[in-house]
Amino acid sequence: MNCFKSFIITVLLLISFVGTGYSYKQMVVVIPSYNNKQWCQQNLKSALGQKYPSYTVIYVDDQSPDKTADAVEQCVRKEHRDFKVHCINDVFKTDAQSLISQCVNSGKKSFILVRNTERRLAMANLYHAIHACPNESVIVGLDGDDWYNNNNVLDKINSDYHNQDVWFTYVRHVKRPQKRYGWGKPLSVSKIKNRSFREGQYLDQQRTFYAWLFKQIKLEDLLCVEKSQFAGQFYPTNYDVAMCMPMMEMATNKFKFMPEAMYVYNVGTQMNDWTVNRENVCTFGRILRDKKPYDQLFSPRHFHPAKFLYDDPLIISSATDFSDLVSILNNSDQEYVCISKNQSHTFSQLQMQRATHELERTFARVVYFMGSINRNLFPMVKIDRGVYAAQYKWFKDMMHQPDFFEPCLVRKNDLHAIIEKHSMSSLDELYQSLAKLYKLPKQVALFYLPKTLSKAVCYII
């Protein structure tokens, strides 16, 4: 009976908007969760009970020991049968990324349960889930122990995004069990004019934004560069500050405050960061608010992986004439350069495509191709199958060992800027100069471990 009522309401909504130019955005509710078996039923009821024609819910269980994932799957299959259910392991894997993209583009109600096989924490899970979503989808955040207080939340958010000047919204919340309103409020004209978004408390728990806007955040700004047990990892707390401050700065005035309290913030749970990790919340909160602000964007900037798929790299090896290197770069149409001492190294077209894709997606400086790597050698974080990221601060003392860091892939423009300022006559000197790519300790390099360095279709160095 409930399904029938939901169907009738959806049909009436569609009819009411025929001829008005009204359309429905691709909505994706992303729920990072850990040990929320107690709250998952209420959480899912609010997320899956929205009066919205079609949308996707991504629920990432972060290896909860209380078997949250089992309870979630049982609840969805039993009580929310209008959703197509998909279950998959590990949000960062290629097959999970592909499934998310397919579901969002399907135009159907889809529920994706991701069971992580190791704990990664909320920021890492959000990073991978959102990067898998189409650029134009609207991301709606919901923590695993919170819920919406009505079933029109997505419809109201959709209405705001029909304004082309809205890239980001934030909503008031109600605290449970106190039943008090949160601190959310509209920004003053002076704060917007001065772009002082990192000052003060004005963002509540509910934030929404275009996926493409999130994808403009550099990976380096989401990783902990400070010496601690979390060195080189995604920030363990304050993920809202880490990702929302850059997006607010890039949007500047293209955001909207929604005064209606539609989000219930469950501060009574024992898993709340303010309760469990208060010291980290205060420490990392100060660090994140002190970061350099992002530049304003004046129009949408999309990342299109296809752009980088067929861009063959320029090859620089020991056989290259270094006396004419600047001319070689100037006369090349390629955007990327592969550097290697060993002329026997071969790479498949697929490997080069993937390396280029990850370089652009993360805003990293360089991709190092490795046969193997000791993950305990310096702090690093896994961002995809066979791909790890590390900040320069953690491996700078090893840069004098060029054999360890070769072969590698860099942007031609970056390499050109170094060569113009620093003349070099050999490949060894070129490798020594690569350290100059890293202007800040937080900047990221990628370490790519392909299963094999020899495939049928190869670039031979």
Give the SSE map.
Blueprint: H1 2-16, E1 27-33, H2 40-48, E2 56-61, H3 68-79, E3 84-89, H4 94-105, E4 110-115, H5 122-131, E5 138-141, E6 147-148, H6 153-160, E7 168-176, E8 180-181, H7 189-194, E9 206-210, H8 211-214, H9 239-251, E10 255-266, H10 273-276, H11 278-289, E11 314-316, H12 325-330, E12 336-339, E13 346-348, H13 349-362, E14 366-369, E15 381-384, E16 387-391, H14 392-395, E17 408-411, H15 412-421, H16 427-433, E18 444-448, E19 458-460
Summarize the structure.
This protein has 461 residues and is an alpha/beta fold. The chain has helices spanning 2-16, 40-48, 68-79, 94-105, 122-131, 153-160, 189-194, 211-214, 239-251, 273-276, 278-289, 325-330, 349-362, 392-395, 412-421, 427-433, and strands at 27-33, 56-61, 84-89, 110-115, 138-141, 147-148, 168-176, 180-181, 206-210, 255-266, 314-316, 336-339, 346-348, 366-369, 381-384, 387-391, 408-411, 444-448, 458-460.
Tag the structure with descriptive keywords.
32% helix; 2 domains; 7-stranded mixed β-sheet; disordered C terminus; Spore Coat Polysaccharide Biosynthesis Protein SpsA, Chain A; 19 strands; globular; single chain; 10-stranded mixed β-sheet; alpha/beta; 461 residues
